[in-house]
Amino acid sequence: MAKTLLGIGCAALIVAFVAGFAVTNSQARHAPLLLTKPQPSAFKMMASQQQLPSEHFADYSLVFH
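Predicted structure:
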């Protein structure tokens, strides 16, 4: 009985979500895509920087007791 009710509940939720997406008539405004906008280049930014901090760590992988 519990499995039947769970199955019916899941089926009802699936039908409700599908119907909600199918019936939705949203008038939401979307920002226009600007394909000509210059995009920053991560490689150029990293290559042009000087004195960047470097990471130092101690390697204890071969320490024997």
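Summary: The helical segments are 2-23, 42-48.
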